Amino acid sequence: MTSATRMGVLALLWGSGFLWIKISLNEGLTPGWITFVRCALGAAVLLALAYGAGQRLPRDPATWGRLLVAAFFCNALPFLLFSVGEQTVDSGVAGVLNATTPLWSLLIGLALGTERPLRATRLAGLVLGFAGVLLIFAPWSHASGLLSTGALALLGASASYAVAFAYMARHLTGRGTAPLALSAAQLLTATGLSTPALAVGKTATVTWAGVLAVVVLGVLATGLTFHLNYRMIAEEGPTAAATVGYLLPVVSVALGALILDEPLTVRVVAGMAVVLVGVGLTRTRTRQRRAEPEATELPASPSPNLTLKDQ
After folding, report:
1. CA distance 103 to 275
2. Residue 14 in contact with residue 186, Cβ under 8 Å?
3. Which terminus, N or C, of the chain has the lesser number of Cβ atoms within 10 Å?
């Protein structure tokens, strides 16, 4: 498989997650059930891959305690929030908002003091990125839905990823646990954390299409995408993985328009472009650090199931 083909397959599987969430919701599944099944199936895939690679789950209680925090902010909470958000917001827009995670990461870094004062380019990128979000939701329009529960849930999910990556970079990376095993353990933990959400929401008749969609979401768009992303970073470096991250909103918007007949307005497309340009500008400093090992970079649009910053 060529690099371009692998990149295309990964972008399609990864970016299709928002489509599968929407179909699952439309076919009777609640956000709680989607979150639980997604975590459980993703964990099963990663456990199988870890077992095949001879990797064992961590055994010390301290690691499991840190995984509890990571699983909540990186998996259980954002998975649930994305499902809640897509009850009222198009899947394509959800994919675009997922791309704002690096912007939240930058804000968190500034708040914690881990980021130096912003230069003009990165500051412009930060402002531009969130301006793109405003353009998508058009707060000047009475029907924009900017402050709707769904929109806020989607933004909260992206911010939750940023919190998770900041925490994992400090407390989980580089501690000797094999990455696939650690990721499997994290999704196992997230499965347990998402269990209470099963009791929330109105039950409906679940169709076979809904069952198939959530299975694809868990197995392909969660478990398998982690493995492919891990392989890409290991074999081609994080720059290739970052490029895939920029393709995700394009995939989510295209799939939403083609399969779900979601409206593809000029405003949404323009907002997506502005968000991605803004994210790119905020990452200029990272790209200029050629003396640092490539493996310290984080993909531009983090995967919901990406566990290790230095994979």
Report:
1. 9
2. no
3. N
